[in-house]
UniProtKB/TrEMBL annotation:
Gene symbol of the encoding locus: folE
Subunit structure: Homopolymer.
Pathway: Cofactor biosynthesis; 7,8-dihydroneopterin triphosphate biosynthesis; 7,8-dihydroneopterin triphosphate from GTP: step 1/1
Catalytic class of the enzyme: hydrolase
Organism: Deinococcus cellulosilyticus (strain DSM 18568 / NBRC 106333 / KACC 11606 / 5516J-15)
InterPro entries: GTP-CH-I_C/QueF, GTP-CH-I_N, GTP_CycHdrlase_I, GTP_CycHdrlase_I_CS, GTP_CycHdrlase_I_dom
Protein name as catalogued: GTP cyclohydrolase 1
Length: 200
């Protein structure tokens, strides 16, 4: 079967029924009768990010008007949306990883900015998919960088992975990933400023 084969809703329900049987359950008992249907509907919602277009989300931008220049440019317009909660799904185990993301960028002088909510929408579009945390972090940075062409983008994602906490090694702990472009890649002081701002 190739990735392009369209699996029907009924076929997906059947797969959940088979999984329940494999786990020793009886899918015909009353409590489980509608479970395959519910599970497929739930997953459609949880990974609904595949139907959200990140580039479309960032397509509405506005300019700041004339910005007085002077001093170090990075201090003129540091935009950050921090402590944005998200739930994503580990592509290895299909289990949730949950945490917070911090998204920052420095617009070009006189450059364009994006509405605050669009940063949260961007996060939603990439988080609600089967992911690894590193890719999620890079996708946020890369898409913001391409769409806004700012001086730089800084992203930090912190999350707990159920696949590590609830099964396997069963150790709590948080994974922290960062991605930097432009000024944040080149300039340690900008990076430091970002890290200072996202500090709990
Ligand atoms: N780097 C990274 N690793 C992840 C992420 N989510 C899950 N993992 C890891 O992916 C790995 C998959 O390893 P495998 O050995 O193939 O699977 P496994 O036998 O279930 O591994 P264990 O969790 O060690 O029991 C595990 O070490 C997970 O902790 C992520 O977002 N980033
Ligand atoms: Zn996992």
């Amino acid at each position: 079967m190739t990735a392009t084969h369209t699996v029907t809703f009924e076929e997906a329900c059947k797969a959940i029924e088979v999984l329940l049987r494999h786990l020793g359950e009886n899918p015909s008992r009353e409590g489980l009768l509608d479970t395959p249907h519910r599970v497929v509907k739930a997953w459609q919602e949880l990974v609904g990010g595949y139907h959200l277009d990140p580039h479309e989300i960032l397509s509405t931008t506005f300019d700041l008007g004339d910005v007085e220049e002077g001093g170090a440019l990075r201090h003129v317009n540091f935009v950050i949306s921090k402590n944005l909660p998200f739930v994503s799904y580990c592509e290895h185990h299909m289990l949730p990883f949950e945490g917070e993301a911090h998204l920052a960028y420095v617009p070009q002088p006189g450059g364009r900015v994006v509405g605050l909510s669009k940063l949260a929408r961007l996060l939603d579009a990439y988080a609600r998919r089967f992911q690894v945390q590193e890719r999620l972090t890079e996708q946020l940075a890369g898409t913001l960088d391409r769409a806004l062409q700012p001086m730089g983008v800084a992203i930090m994602v912190e999350a707990s992975h159920s696949c590590q906490c609830a099964r396997g090694i069963r150790k709590k702990g948080r994974m922290v990933t960062t991605a930097y472009t432009g000024i944040f890649q080149m300039d340690a002081a900008s990076r430091q400023e970002f890290l200072q701002l996202v500090k709990p």
